[in-house]
Input
Amino acid sequence: MKILQLHNAHQTFGGANLVIERENKLLTEAGHQVDTFFVESSEMLAGPKHKQLTSVIWNPEANRAVKRLIAEQGTDIVHLHTPFPFMSPSVVRAAKRVGVPVVMTSHSFRIPCIVGTLQRDGRPCHDCVGAALPVAAVRHRCYHDSLPASAALAASSVLHHRTGTYSSGIDKHLALTPYMKDLLVRDGIAADRVVVHPNFIPDPVTSGNADRSGAVFVGRLVAEKGIETLVEAWRLMGADAPPLRIIGDGAERARLEPTAPDTISFLGEIPNTDVVGHLRSAETLIFPSEWPEGLPITLIEALATATPVIYSDIGNFTALLDDAHCGASFVTGDPKSLAEATTEFFGTLSNKPSTNARSYYEKHFTPDAALQRLEGIYRGIVGSIVSSGTSGG
Output
């Protein structure tokens, strides 16, 4: 099968880029031809302001490039990752115009929320989910605190919702989690067009996990990651707190590290292989994020290394982890609740959460599981179009 990956690459390498690279390699090794077309945000930001704003709504250059690539490569299916902000969802219309089906992975919540976080001023916000007009996004200047940029993204949202780009132009939406699927359905996409397709990671070596101790946090040290809640929870536990290793860096480190309890060690940024080693040697990963995120790779790495997770009770995480019984939740943003959940976890520690975590990884998050899902989705769509004799309009 010939697959064309599309993506708007942001200025910094992020989780979506890693997922795209891994899926490309996975599909190529399985015998598929995978081509790519990226729009670089850094290049767009160096250009004229008016072009940036209009491209957010409809990017004619990307539209033409996609049509050309499809003709040159004989593409069977387009896999769109993130078209925001500058590639624009116009690339969906380009593919459909030449009769090629499209699937899209939602790496964040950008279809119902122009900033993709479902947050405003540090608090949950669903004002624009399912709204005919995302007025709140413009009024509050949600995108980079810019009225023109927020208005352009809101206009793009209205155009592509009303013309059916999202509801009928995309043959399958791939949601990372059940929670994300529910949000897309609430935003007007038919449930049968949305399938849960989580991220995956190569299987790390899991032998030698017997000597586990303490807890670990992995992530950026910024407010939305719940780092202040984490440090305060350890302060509340006092001398009874288990050792905590904090891996990562960010704006909050300089403020929190000098007065943090002695039970906390700040390790800064370290190579990913070392991160996996710390997960393998910890009794739990603490995941105190205060926004829904998408599906952080760190969570999957914890499951793969048989490391239970103590996590915020945000719907995106509870829908993913509660039924798996591979850890425990606490009230988001509440240091006392986190301290109580941690104390209870270490007081009743058994092998069962570790076993459940590893089993959950093996069932849903391995490369083999991802390949089976992707091939099934692709073939189902392409086969359906061939058998019906339909083409895009």
User: Anything to note?
Assistant: Residues 2-200+366-388 form a domain with the Rossmann fold fold (CATH 3.40.50.2000). Residues 367-388 form the longest helix (22 residues). The chain has two domains: 2-200+366-388, 215-364.
